[in-house]
Amino acid sequence: MNNKKLITCVITITLLILVSGCTTATAPTPDLAATIAVNVAVEQTLAALQTQTNLTQVAYQQQNPTETPTPSPTPTSAFTPTPDKVTLTLSKDTYCRNGVFAKSPNVTLMTVGQTYDVLAVDPNNQAYYVVEPNHTFTNCWLWGEFATVSGDVASLPVYTPQPLPTPTYTPTVGPDFTVSYVGMQTCGADYYLRFFIKNTGSKTWQSLMINVTDNSNNTTTTYANTAFVDYSGCSAGLSESDLTPGESSNVAVYPGGRYAADPTGHSMTAVIQLCQTDSSGGCNPKTVNFAP
């Protein structure tokens, strides 16, 4: 018997007991004790029914448990994909430079057909910052004209290449020299003069001519040579075939410029002219005033 039918029976029995306690002849005298007993019986019966119902539900749940789904953990991957490497190959040998300009200094020559790892791209997407494969040099910039790129160029960082160095103006030094009077030497009864000449220009001097004027007696001597030769007494000393930039030599005006009389104390003016006898040509004179 299910719970609903049992409750219906209890209520029916209760009503019958109440009716049987009444008579039609006289007015009923309420039987308080009987009423209390009936109420107690009803309450006990309902309590028992409720307890039975609870036990039945517990037993049913134990036999038919409700499945509570356990959430499946979200799978986590230990592998984090890295961006594909960007590389390039060249269709022509290309200089790798420390900048993107044609005048940027060369770092090394990258060869055709070899693959190079690309680290970055310039803001104009025209040059690529690459790894020198032998790691002999620092990383450098390749112009993209002869480059075939593989990979996602958009994933590359953008590097700003270093600008060209500010040119330093170096004035052009033409042919030049300095000259100074050194002193006078003698060979027997002859007197001759010596000069010190230094090449301070950018050209090589290959011949010389020296004209010395004795202002005291208005006489002039001339000496010419294709070598720069010094003398000491009557003996020839060091000789230079030419004077290259920075080179110097003592030159004796002898024997062509010798004096038979002692010129000591005379006012002298010497014009020393050096010349380039090669294809560049050109001569340059200097004047020196002195007194032996």
Could you explain the architecture of this structure?
A hairpin with a 2-residue loop joins β8 (177-187) and β9. This protein is an alpha+beta fold and 292 residues long. The chain has helices spanning 3-20, 32-63, and strands at residues 87-90, 94-97, 106-110, 115-121, 127-130, 140-143, 147-150, 177-187, 190-199, 207-214, 219-225, 228-232, 235-240, 248-252, 268-275, 283-290. It is built from 2 helices and 16 strands. Helices cover 17% and strands 34% of the residues. The protein has a 5-stranded antiparallel sheet, with no helix packed on it. A 4-stranded antiparallel sheet has the order 11-10-15-16, with no helix packed on it. Strands 8-9-14 form a 3-stranded antiparallel sheet, with no helix packed on it. Among the domains are: 87-155, SH3 Domains (SH3 type barrels); 177-290, Immunoglobulin-like, CATH 2.60.40.
For the structure shown, list the relevant keywords.
292 residues; alpha+beta; SH3 type barrels; Immunoglobulin-like; five-stranded antiparallel beta sheet; four-stranded antiparallel beta sheet; 16 strands; 34% strand; rod-shaped
* Straight-line N-to-C gap: 157 Å
Secondary-structure element order, as H and E? HHEEEEEEEEEEEEEEEE
How are strands sequenced across the largest beta sheet?
6-5-4-1-7
Number of helices: 2
Tell me which CATH architecture of the domain at 177-290 applies here: Sandwich
How many strand segments?
A: 16
Major β-sheet, in short? 5 strands, antiparallel
Low-confidence stretches: 22-27
The dominant shape is: rod-shaped
Proportion of strand residues: 25-35%
- Stated plainly, the CATH topology of the domain at 177-290 is called Immunoglobulin-like
Radius of gyration: 61 Å
Backbone structural class: alpha+beta
CATH class of the domain at 177-290: Mainly Beta
